[in-house]
Amino acid sequence: MPLATSPAGYLLVLAIVLPVSGMVLSFVLGGRHAERIALATAPFGLAIAIAIAAEVLKTGQPITYIVGGWSPPLGIALRADGFSAVMLVTSALVLPAAMLYARAYFATPATLREKRAPFAFWTLMQGLSAALAVVFTGGDLFTLYVALELLTFAAVPLVCLDGRAETLEAALRYLLFALLGSILYLLGVGLIYGRFGVLDIALLAERTRALDGDTRALLVAGALMTAGLAAKTALFPLHLWLPPAHANAPAPASAVLSALVVKGSFFLAVRLWFDVMPTLASTAAMTVLGALGCGAILFGSVMALRQERLKLLIAYSTVAQIGYLFLVFPLASGAGAWTAVGWTGGIMQVLAHALAKSGMFLAAGLVAEAVGHDRISGLRGVGRSMPVTLLAFGLGGVSLMGLPPSGGFLAKWWLLLASVQSGQWAWCLVVLAGGLLAGGYVFRVVAPAIAGEPLVLAKPVARGREVVALLLALGAIALGVAPDGLLELIRIGRGG
Amino acid sequence: MTATTLAGLTGAALIGLGLYGVLVNVHALRKILAFNLIGSGVFLVFGLVARRGAVAGFAADPVPQAMVITGIVVAFSATALAIGLLLRLHERRVEDAAAESDNRSDNKSDKT
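The joint structure predicted for all components is written out below.
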């Protein structure tokens, strides 16, 4: 890979600088300006993300930017391949959607100059956007460590904006898991640096390929980093922090936490095993990750079936859907012909889940606001009084179940195809069982909601906010008829 | 045993003790302290990695030292955030308990 700035490299800098400037400006101007700045910069963020994706697709190559003209290993590179580009676009779509939805939730009252929770929300959302941009474009392991920490520091306070004791407790638990995860990741970075003396991912990839001899230090580093990232991604059995944090956060925050934040650390785990040390991704190690993913699918789905509160059900469903992501490790690593299919399936699952789950969390938030609670037993007939919201929830559910035509269907279809082609049958059974269980927990909500008399709403919600949730869920369905260009884009920058 | 090996083993021991502390302790404050113990161990390992740069002809490799400085800043802010959350949680629980006992005494006075 040439270590020189690409013609469009400046786009990567813009993708990071825009939200960072917005955040800093929000701090300086304060009050209701934070909301205005966040909403005003969002369209530009989307334009930059789309420009990056278009450029990667056009040139068929990753974009590189060498910061300050100092080449790695001395300097730092930013890099965006196809996976980075689609993640940048996804976050540039989901974050503004959550922001539009949140305008009613986190409005600064006209009589006040500044209110604490709205100010924190609008500033943190921009911080989240900046941290995600660095995670998706960072070119070396240490920059990625810092990005991961920024992501955690922006995400944790979002959980406890309302200041209730139980949300503070959920945030603290989230933070403790995340801190343990990042310190393990950092230790792994130190060991890798000690072995090779470089941190740049492209340079490390060359050196691990050429490595012959003692790989023990690298494997220990890989194991530590993977464990750390798994804790941050809430991979079963390190998922304990996720349900209380995601279920107690305000709905727009839950949406971005479930859709984007957990994907950030998953993205780094993929970088680690597919880019930094592909030659060390042994079948045994990848099978362990796949098996944990299966544990997550089964455990998360069964727990979702047993929840009494709608938001907890959706949160446990996130635990299950994260499990599918980790099937990408056994199904896309190695040199088999099936790996391209497994890779596309895994990435499609990331995108489809991001859109479907954010739509579902926003819908659940509207139900809770309108009805006054989110106990599933008390939601009979809610679909008759809030049809658009329930449609958003149901369409998101269609994608989670993997019914055609939806992004979730394509993702699960390709994962199944890859496991059949590679002869790894066990994954098939779990993918199918997970789909059935998802059907169970989605129908548990939808079936009573469309039956009976329309539920009388305590407080009607604005139609615009229902439409935002619906558009996100429709996006997850639309991925099912994704153009070939998207699939091509997902594979750009992949070695095999 | 050379000084380098000893320092390496110390780093490993600190990380092990800290990890044990994080997993076993129930109280959040102790978990936060244990996390800082792991951090110290990790920073010690980074120091050793810098020392190994001497093998390549440097007096000491400056890159891991720069990473330790960043790491300390991050660990410090993380600890501050965690302590802040913990303090707020404590205050909130005290407030909630006070409000509850108020309610209870109100109910009692209603009955009498």
